[in-house]
Amino acid sequence: MTLRKSTITDQQFVQMRCSTDGGTHYFEATGSMYAQPLDSDQPIHLFDFLGVDISRCIQDPTTSRWTLLSRKFTLYLDPRSQEILRQWQNPWTGETLHVIHRSYDYQEFQIPPQVGAFIGPEVSFVSLDLNLKLPNNLASNPKFSEYSPEPFVQSSDSYKFIFPTRMLEDEIVDASCDRAVTLSYYRMGPWEPWMKMKGKAGFLVLNYTGTKTDVFEELHPALKTQIEQRLPLYREAPACRLQRSIATSWSRFEEEFDAYLRGEEFPLLAPLKEEPCLE
């Protein structure tokens, strides 16, 4: 199969990534996380995980620009038993720690007018690569010195969306075509703060694959149970851009630190709530 390097429009990207009708779509994902120490210690397969990205795309009526709005959460699993972890023993310090499953209740991405793509006769893909070096706000607070002392948060994220090429031409995408969209994700980044790595040199490698659906009932039972019993806010993507900052593992750790120390169950409860839109 020959792939041609090209671009697609923001609306074509929206058609593939979610839909142009503003509906909620889900990407269920499964994958693994590995530790890569930078000293003499060997790499370790730390976790498997199961997660879901809950997204919708909205268009600004004034500028016609598109924005991807999402919530997402990930459950860390024991790589052997596949059980959802409540506690984890740090293999380097021996300390047993409470697990903070990832839960981001608000994220947004401004979709550019043109998106790079590789176009094939039947299958095409989009690759979005994000390389960041940002100040670590936790590093300046002494109470986080054992959890996240690094002055910067550095990461490389690569999202690849694989989809039928005919989605670029069809104004209305049928369900079978929509379900054919798949996601491959790879990340290199710092230790999660809750792992309490105390400044150990090294990084995490994370990879997962996902599939798209707009039907909540098609999600994995463990994900549906979390949403129905603990995270009803995550049933739908945000309906508009919100008057709040984007969630990260570091901002969530700061917000949830006291609950972490108390050993509460994560993800923390996320009931439905009124969320003011950005005007």
If strands are numbered along the chain, what order do they take across the biggest sheet? 1-8-9-10-11-12-2-3-4-7
Q: Which percent range fits the helix content?
A: 10-25%
**What structural class is derived from the secondary structure elements?**
mainly beta
Number of DSSP helical runs:
4
- Largest sheet, if any? 10 strands, antiparallel
Beta-strand content: 35-45%
Order of helices and strands: EHEEEEEEEEEHEEHH
Distance between the termini: 46 Å
Quaternary state of the chains: single chain
Give average pLDDT, whole number.
Answer: 95
How many strand units? 12
Please state the CA-atom Rg, rounded to the nearest Å.
Answer: 19 Å
**Uncertain parts:** none
Question: Could you explain the architecture of this structure?
Answer:
The protein is mainly beta and 279 residues long. 13% of the residues lie in helices and 41% in strands. It has four helices and twelve strands; from the N terminus they run βαβββββββββαββαα. It has helices at residues 10-17, 175-178, 221-229, 249-262; strands at 4-9, 25-37, 44-59, 66-77, 87-89, 96-98, 102-110, 114-119, 123-135, 152-164, 182-189, 202-213. The chain has a ten-stranded antiparallel β-sheet with strand order 1-8-9-10-11-12-2-3-4-7. Strand 3 (44-59) and strand 4 form a beta hairpin. The mean pLDDT is 95.
Set down the secondary structure blueprint.
Elements: E1 4-9, H1 10-17, E2 25-37, E3 44-59, E4 66-77, E5 87-89, E6 96-98, E7 102-110, E8 114-119, E9 123-135, E10 152-164, H2 175-178, E11 182-189, E12 202-213, H3 221-229, H4 249-262
Antiparallel strand pairs: 1-8, 2-3, 2-12, 3-4, 4-7, 5-6, 8-9, 9-10, 10-11, 11-12
